[in-house]
Every structure is written in structure tokens, then in C-alpha cells.
Amino acid sequence: MTIVSPRVPQVDPAPASILRNHEHDFASLAERLDRRGQRADAIVDAVRRFEVAVPSWALGTGGTRFGRFPGPGEPRTLGEKIEDAAMVHRLTGGTPRV
To answer: How many other CB atoms are there within 10 angstroms of residue 8's CB atom?
Structure first.
């Protein structure tokens, strides 16, 4: 099976003012956490390591015990489901397993 890497939509960069506000808000939160004896960088690291396993049934519109009711673009094969799961991971970075 050949896996084709589809084009991933790019997100426009945020304006500088939004980035400055985010940095200010994060610094404020880090200061509050520090007063409680918690480290913001440790929390960020924990979030980076967080992973969610995508169940294969989540990649289709589904069906019941009486039959399947596929929607347009729904994966039809295991290979197509794996490709869809890979795309979810490319977009989120948090779903490395199926």
C-alpha cells in the first residue's frame, strides 16, 4: 500500500498583537502557578506528551448491527481508515495510535 501525504491546510499566522497578548497571558498564568508551587513548563511538557488513541470506528459515519450507512467520503477499507487516522494525527499531533 502506498501512503500519499495529502496537503495539510496551513493556518495563517496570528497578528503580532495576538502573540504579544498570548505571551503576556501565559507569563501571568506561569506566575500564578509558581505561587502555588507548580511549574508552567512542566504542565506544558505533560500536555505535549498527552496522546489520544483514535478508535477505528470514529473515522466513519457508522452503522448499526443491521447494516452500514456510509456517508460521502467515508473510508471504505482498513487502509483508508489508517490514512484518515494519520491525517488526524498530522492536524492535531496528539493521536499517534489507532
So the answer is: 9
| pTM beyond 0.85, yes or no | no
Among 5, 2, 49, 47, CA closest to 26: 47
H runs (alpha helix) in the chain: 16-35, 40-49, 78-92
Q: Which residues, 6 or more positions from 56, have their beta carbon under 8 angstroms from its beta carbon?
A: 78, 81, 85, 98
Q: How far apart are CA 62 and CA 70, in angstroms?
A: 6
| Cα–Cα distance, 58 to 66 (Å, whole number) | 18
Tens-place pLDDT, residues 81-92 = 888 888 888 888
CA distance linking residue 18 with residue 95, whole number of Å = 28
Provide CB contacts within 8 A for 64, sequence distance 6+. none
